[in-house]
């Protein structure tokens, strides 16, 4: 069968989408919104979620995090210290999370005890974008230290994201970064998504917190 | 055929390795050493190669660069301005360069007119590591802005690299980064590879320049 590669690849994605749909049913049944956070290695995803978990804890809210890395459990350990219910997935050589890994991780969480679930994907601006995990929304995250050209080089992530975060804005005086160019490149790819400057390490994350607040279950639910 | 996925995946890698071997033969015939530079998005790969190209030009040497990105020709444009012979590969949604893409790019370069060829892989710490391109050596690159935990999270890259570069060392006063932890994690994975602090944007790249100097054709060749 000379064309055998095509159906095999399609089957992998089809199976992923089927499991993602099952995940979505489970999330909705538990009335928990799910955010898929995607950014490059070291853009500050875990620091953002540590800060978010601390805010949640201080308000009596419960944040769940499923976090993917090739190796180590360092991120989950940091998040648990910050008060999150965190599960680490080690992907080995795998460059993204898939729906089945998320399903297995969910088995270790009590969805009914969560107010929000954030999936911190493997640090990679490329591969994670193509895999539905059952999430409600995708958030793309960049850091000013990565340079202003990253949105134009990663159009699929920008196009698919509901929100774009520009982290480490406190480093702007120290790095070459044309913010006007960054914002123009994003707008050309996705005119709807807001772009928020944040500095997670400095706890300057207000627009993000307001955005996720709007995703918490309402008291009437 | 219930097991059809396994042979298909193996065939893809086998074909890549066959083309990589052909690339390697072509590189050796032209007496040009080839370095595969791998680092995350925005760690400073292109800036390093711009600086390298300027040094080469001022010494009458000729640097070739094959550069991979999902989209845009911005990196090749920057490198050509800096004096390199640069070819851009746009991978679309592809997360790494493969040997066939490199073979096609080489067709646009005159190998006999180059003193060194550097392949700037797609900004990604994961997928590029598994694909032989026909290169002689792999160099792994990190940035202090990414945090000190990246080697432990990317063991395959660290294990496979001949040299590890720690870029943006000028930002150390402004970011949380435990250099002792970074170096200990690297040493545990690869005791042979040197780790050099550089600051490409400040033109502080001496150990890297000395290392590639040792890879230039000797006058006797």
What is the fold's blueprint, element by element?
2 copies of one chain form a homodimer.
Chain A: H1 5-29, E1 33-39, H2 45-58, E2 63-69, H3 74-81, E3 85-90, H4 99-106, E4 116-120, E5 137-143, H5 150-153, H6 155-160, E6 163-167, H7 179-189, E7 195-197, H8 206-213
Helix pairs in contact in A: 1-4, 2-3
Instruction: Sketch the major β-sheet of chain A.
Output: 7 strands, parallel
Overall number of strands of chain A: 7
Number of helices of chain A: 8
Cα(first) to Cα(last) distance of chain A is 53 Å
Helix content of chain A: 25-40%
- Specify the oligomeric state: homodimer
Report the portion of residues of chain A in β strands. 15-25%
Low-confidence stretches of chain A: none
User: What is the overall pLDDT average of chain A?
Assistant: 95
Of all protein chain pairs, which has the greatest interface, and how many residues does each chain bring to it? A-B, 44 and 43 residues
Report what the structure shows.
The structure is a homodimer of 221-residue chains. With 221 residues, chain A is an alpha/beta fold. Chain A has helices at residues 5-29, 45-58, 74-81, 99-106, 150-153, 155-160, 179-189, 206-213; strands spanning 33-39, 63-69, 85-90, 116-120, 137-143, 163-167, 195-197. In chain A, strands 3-2-4-1-5-6-7 form a 7-stranded parallel beta sheet, with helices on both faces. In chain A, strand 2, helix 3 (74-81) and strand 3 form a beta-alpha-beta unit. In chain A, helix 1 (5-29) packs parallel to helix 4 and helix 2 (45-58) packs parallel to helix 3 (74-81). The model of chain A has no long low-confidence stretch (mean pLDDT 95). The A-B interface holds A 1, 4-5, 8, 11-12, 40-43, 69-72, 74, 93-95, 122-127, 129-130, 143, 145-147, 149-150, 152-156, 168, 170-171, 174-176, 201 and B 1, 4-5, 8, 11-12, 40-43, 69-72, 74, 93, 95, 122-127, 129-130, 143, 145-147, 149-150, 152-156, 168, 170-171, 174-176, 201.
